[in-house]
């Protein structure tokens, strides 16, 4: 297993190129299941989750070929409709094969994802929506077994909670369903808009993506696509926080500033000077220490839970007291005890992390517990005195393309070693 060894680094300076978004690419690659025609996806990040997705699609019989940051998929003759536990347990987003398989082939067996480090993460909304569209679903021996006679039927679905994954699964299912599907209380994340744009390019009619009501007019068949994945707003935010914490000046290229307004707003409140172009964002801390910020996570367009851990690190070293409240996942503060081991003064109070600020961090061996927790520890390592060893970085490799090379390009002292 690999670990990252990070030494206290100078303030980060320079340009960094942002990759395609993991959370957009995962559902986008699943759209290939909706058509027998070839699909090409570009700006696909080189990540462990993308490898898992292509392995999963190959297991179903999809023809896969890859070039750097490009994936070609053809689902003209499937050999299986089963997503096995072995793959689903390593990547929860595997559940996104359910909607497309069911709508195109009338059946699907998908291992139940189960809980994960950050929370229980049930899939009841995915199943309830598909049942409303006419599917019969049972859970047997840890597998969701779903089938439908004929086509799924368009339905008016109101979701009790805002769920990104359920919205995506139901949008893909609805694209081949008979008639119109209306999704109410839908997620509004930029990745939903990206998926809607791809489905539209494939011949479905999708309106309202980016609002809480999405209309999808299903069609009998969809065509292939040539689709470029949206820039990763969470990777962008992570580099901006790293720059802010180090007192540096960093420009993120190939970014999508309009997708991370809530994060940019908090960085401005922390004292950063932010300048944006059409596809770039520059953060300049002018050598200052950030001011602590108050943050509450909530569905888009509010502050994203996937940026919460990085802001906990920012608040640790900032001036003043900061409170960060997590409202999406019930167990997403696993980075806090690790940051405390580095000297951070943070108290956990119910679902809030309260930091006193001005902690002087010291390097320590720390363990990554999930993807964004890992990112928060890497950022802490850059400013901690001495050396920080971050273990279990396979979490980080799920979602950050070449993170150590990109950080080194900004002047960080970071290297990958065998544990
Ligand atoms: C691959 C991907 O895009 N992952 C993102 C996606 O995850 P994911 O799509 O899994 O997250 P959801 O939006 O579905 O989850 C939001 C909340 O709803 C709950 N819930 C969800 C579905 C359901 O059927 N029942 C239910 O109760 C979850 O437990 C959670 O508390 O959105 C999350 C919230 O922005 C992000 O943190 C993840 O990075
Ligand atoms: C929680 C995340 O991803 P996933 O839903 O794939 O676990 C994330 O990207 O921070």
Automatic annotation (TrEMBL):
A Pfam family the protein falls into: EPSP_synthase
Residues recorded with modification 2-(S-cysteinyl)pyruvic acid O-phosphothioketal = 116
**Domain Enolpyruvate transferase spans what residues?**
7-407
Q: What are the annotated GO cellular component locations?
A: cytoplasm
Gene Ontology BP annotations: cell division; cell wall organization; peptidoglycan biosynthetic process; regulation of cell shape; UDP-N-acetylgalactosamine biosynthetic process
EC number(s) on record?
2.5.1.7
Q: Which pathway or pathways does this protein act in?
A: Cell wall biogenesis; peptidoglycan biosynthesis
**Any one Gene Ontology molecular-function term assigned to this protein's record:** UDP-N-acetylglucosamine 1-carboxyvinyltransferase activity
Alphabetical list of SUPFAM superfamilies matching this protein: EPT/RTPC-like
The cellular location(s) given in this protein's UniProt record come to:
Cytoplasm
Tell me the enzyme class: transferase
Record's catalysed reaction(s): phosphoenolpyruvate + UDP-N-acetyl-alpha-D-glucosamine = UDP-N-acetyl-3-O-(1-carboxyvinyl)-alpha-D-glucosamine + phosphate
- Residue sites binding phosphoenolpyruvate per the record: 22-23
Q: Membrane-spanning residues where?
A: none
Q: Give the annotated active site.
A: 116 (proton donor)
Residues reported to bind UDP-N-acetyl-alpha-D-glucosamine = 92, 306, 328
Keywords, comma-separated and alphabetical: Cell cycle, Cell division, Cell shape, Cell wall biogenesis/degradation, Cytoplasm, Peptidoglycan synthesis, Pyruvate, Transferase
Which protein family is it in?
A: Belongs to the EPSP synthase family. MurA subfamily.
What is this protein's function per UniProt? Cell wall formation. Adds enolpyruvyl to UDP-N-acetylglucosamine.
What PANTHER family does its record include? Answer: UDP-N-ACETYLGLUCOSAMINE 1-CARBOXYVINYLTRANSFERASE
Protein name, as recorded:
UDP-N-acetylglucosamine 1-carboxyvinyltransferase
Q: Which organism is it from?
A: Salinimonas marina
